[in-house]
Amino acid sequence: MIEYIIMFIAVLGCILTIVQRDLLKAAILSGITGICVTILFQILLAPDVALTQAIVGSAIVPVFLALAAYKTQRMEDDD
Amino acid sequence: MNELIPLMVIIPITCALLLNLFHGYSKPVKYLSFVVALILPIIPFLANYGLHFFGGHVPLIDNSLLLNQLPSNISSSIISNFHPGIVYSFNSLSKIFIFFFGIVTFLAIFSYISQNKKVSGAYLFLIFMGVAAIVALILTDDIFNMYIFFEISALTQVGIILASKIKNNYEVALKYLFLGSIGGPMMLMGIGFLLGLVGSVNIADIMLAINSGFVDPLSPLFLLSFGLIFFGWLYSVGLPPFHVIKASVYSKALPSASAIIQGFSVMTFIAIGLIIIRIFSVVKFVNAFIIFFSLAGMILSLVLALSSNDFRKTIGFLAVGEIGYIGLGFGIGTPLSITAGLFQGLNELIISALLFIGFGTILYFVKTSKLSKLGGLISYHPKIALFVLIGGLAMAGVPPLNGFQSKLALVQSALSAGYPELAVIMILLSIITFTVFVNVFHRIYLKPKPLDLEVKPDVVIPRSTVFSILILLIICIILGIIPNIVTTPLFNYVGALI
Amino acid sequence: MIDVQLGALITSGAFIIIGLYAAIFLDNIIKKIIGISFIEEGANLFLIALAYKNGGVVPIFLPGFDANWFAQNSAYPLPHALVLTSIVIGASTLAVMLAITMVIYKKKGSLSATKVLGDSNE
């Protein structure tokens, strides 16, 4: 049962990231998807890939995105 | 086993990493890159033809020690023929293409390091990494390996564009990378479908599985994987819908770098195109797909080349359009036409490099690249203008140059395969290409010089550039007079392939 | 009740569709990049889901396993190796894209794709 909940959260995290107008929040929300995918990899019998994904998907990618948003502009629209 | 086969990839990668370390020290960077660029075209002549199994993982059927331990339901099935590791295969095709690509690389690197006092290790890192990726694409027999080097070559092309200081290069690089990172996962999905169907990513295994009825070639998943891999191929070679971005990429790089990027496209076209033909040509409409996209690419890029006002852009579109001829040769699908397509690819590699470097010399003594503001430049460097004109004639297919031989072979193969309409279209498009080229040549060199054009009269064209142009021109003429030195081995290779 | 493999395949499909939507239709460049990272994650999840075996074991051969039993019950490890490479490629591409975006923002002061990338072909 837990795996279906995680799949649901992963897709929900995706949609929330896309509709979020604050880029810093969107970056952090994209980490939720990364963590969910990590757990899914573990459930799908790939613990070695889950180790890499845990670092890349839930830490490195959100941090890069947040840094880019911090260095450019925080809100999506120009004003 | 032949240890020199992987060295063709390992040497440029190692050199690239070392150059990145030495960034900032001009002398070691210059010497190292010169020596390695010189070695690159030589290695293919020392290596023997054959397969290289990484990690020594031969197919199970050749490893009797392991085969005897396995249960009989595995050792007697088709699985025992599969290749468990990555396989590189070196044959006459890879030898010819790696040699000529090595020459183009050498000329580009040579002119870069001889014209700049301070050379950038990072820039040469990108070029060598791209070269390694392209050589690996030609050598590899494994579709996942192909995907990795496809991504590396896309990234290095972006880096090479970023290194030029031409206006708007960052924007074009970002666009190219956007499309690439959509095309890359698509290709990965296609590979995933094939992997799910066959259970192996080795091309020989996939062909074996299809030929022995293990996989149904008309199953929707197989066709879907064809579509996805085909999409990635279109992106990497610049056929429609990616012809505009590819031409922008050529026009935003330095002249010698555009020559190399064009080399990347041609080599990728041939490597991935041959893989597509080997795996998917059991499905009949695959050839029609290739012909359709090639024709569309040729026609659209010729139209855009006519309407463009920037000569770098025009040459970029001409180069993209020429690639379509290779696709026509592949699409017709007879051994003769595929050989002609491969030969055309080789000529394209040489001639486009010649044109990019040759037209690039204009930028040494004029500031603008707008065709409407240029004119009358023939009085400044008439020799270079003559060389460029010969290059253009070779591209348009005028005897006795190499473009004539390959286009003649293409037309003949189209006629003998029963596609006279394709032959007519090819001749027509070739005439239009010639018109476009003559138009550009006239507007740059022959028409009266505009009054507001500032020309630096005492600029000397660097000797290394003239040397590069001359070498490429000599290759053009040699291939035009004795095409048999490459067409015979290519034909033998293609005959063994189909 | 759908099984785990089918669920994971559907999830990966949803990732790819959402990612494609973001990459094509959204205007903000960083949002486009986020969409592209979703496409990559979807492709990875697809490959891992292919390798899954219902009721199987992790493909690590421990001492004491029977080889025949292991061959029939383990997940397929080849896609795992492919995905490891693909994750790293995705992360590096993302880093390059963000770096270029930051340079472009410094020059033009905007993150809107239509404003920044619209006229760059000439």
TrEMBL record, chain A:
Superkingdom in the source lineage: Archaea
Entry membrane topology: Multi-pass membrane protein
Entry keywords, A to Z: Cell membrane, Membrane, Transmembrane, Transmembrane helix
Limits of the MrpA C-terminal/MbhD domain: 9-74
Chief location of this protein within or outside the cell: membrane
Pfam families: MbhD (PF13244)
Xref: InterPro entries: MrpA_C/MbhD
Subcellular location per the Swiss-Prot or TrEMBL entry: Cell membrane
GO cellular component: plasma membrane
UniProt keyword Transmembrane helix present: yes
Transmembrane domains' residue ranges: 26-45, 51-70
NCBIfam families linked to this entry: PRK06280.1
Protein name: MrpA C-terminal/MbhD domain-containing protein
Protein source organism: Methanobrevibacter curvatus
Lineage: Archaea, Methanobacteriati, Methanobacteriota, Methanomada group, Methanobacteria
UniProtKB/TrEMBL annotation, chain B:
Keyword Cell membrane assigned: yes
Spans traversing the lipid bilayer: 6-24, 31-51, 96-114, 121-140, 146-164, 176-198, 218-238, 259-280, 286-306, 318-343, 349-366, 384-402, 422-445, 466-486
Lineage: superkingdom: Archaea
Pfam families according to UniProt: Proton_antipo_M (PF00361)
Residue span(s) of domain NADH:quinone oxidoreductase/Mrp antiporter transmembrane: 141-433
Subcellular location: Cell membrane
InterPro entries the record matches: CPA3_Na-H_Antiporter_D (IPR050586), ND/Mrp_TM (IPR001750)
Protein name, per record: Na(+)/H(+) antiporter subunit D
Organism: Methanobrevibacter curvatus
Automatic annotation (TrEMBL), chain C:
Pfam families: Oxidored_q2
Keywords on record: Cell membrane, Membrane, Transmembrane, Transmembrane helix
Cellular compartments per GO CC: plasma membrane
Membrane topology: Multi-pass membrane protein
Listed transmembrane segments: 6-30, 82-105
Subcellular location as annotated: Cell membrane
Main location class: membrane
Gene3D superfamilies: 1.10.287.3510
Domain of life: Archaea
Matching NCBIfam families: PRK07375.1-3
Protein name: Na(+)/H(+) antiporter subunit C
